[in-house]
Specification:
Length: 210
């Protein structure tokens, strides 16, 4: 049987956002073992509503973490709005500026760091979560990055034969080092962070510029 489509519309979007926020808070406090009843109560909705939007706790957890990964990206944050990249006159300069803001936002994101630690811990305890996480794929985990790269490719500004690889490569070049060092308590200097961003953009563009 085909799964029911998730509810749509402004009211449904507000409920979905409330569920994700409540789940994020409870997962951080109690781990993946928290019950869906508790998440529904925290969000002020019924458990049926939670399942209508996400289908399973694994899908909800994945949505929570995927949202956190891209949270530093967007117009309503201190990070870069990657949706503006396709219209940038100078793509190299725009990518470097976006990379700088992205790196700063990631390094300042204490809650995102806690969620990444939680994923590493819970994947070992709950194999079903690992399966859901892997099935989501790189583009699903990083929708803002995937959307920006897809738009750049559609406009012919980049030639991207494999979107999933490109998403992971951009993350790896610009922000993964910031995440890894900060995760283990080692701070990168501003000068080294700048070199990583500038060289990372150069490497990415050399690979994907038509």
């Amino acid at each position: 049987m085909e799964p029911k489509p998730a509810p749509t519309g402004p009211r449904a979007a507000r409920k979905r956002q409330a569920v994700v926020r409540a789940a994020r808070d409870l997962f951080l406090r109690e781990g993946f073992g928290v019950g869906m009843d508790a998440i529904a109560a925290e969000a002020g909705v019924s458990k049926v509503t939670v399942y209508n939007h996400f289908g399973s706790k694994e899908a909800l957890f994945t949505a929570v973490v995927a949202g956190a990964l891209d949270e530093p990206l967007g117009a309503d944050t201190d990070g870069p709005d990657l949706s503006r990249l396709p219209d940038a006159e100078d793509l190299r300069a725009a990518l470097i500026e976006a990379g700088r803001a992205w790196a700063r936002a990631v390094r300042a994101d204490d809650e995102g760091r806690a969620l990444r630690t939680l994923v590493a811990t819970e994947l070992h305890r709950f194999p079903e979560l690992g399966r859901a996480w892997r099935a989501h794929g790189p583009a699903g985990h990083h929708p803002a990055v995937a959307g920006a790269l897809r738009a750049l490719a559609d406009r012919g500004r980049l030639a991207i034969p494999d979107l999933e690889v490109a998403v992971l490569q951009l993350y790896s070049l610009l922000v993964f080092p910031q995440m890894v060092f900060e995760q283990y308590g080692t701070e990168l200097t501003e000068e080294l962070s700048e070199r990583l961003v500038v060289d990372g953009v150069e490497m990415f563009l050399r690979r994907y510029t038509p």
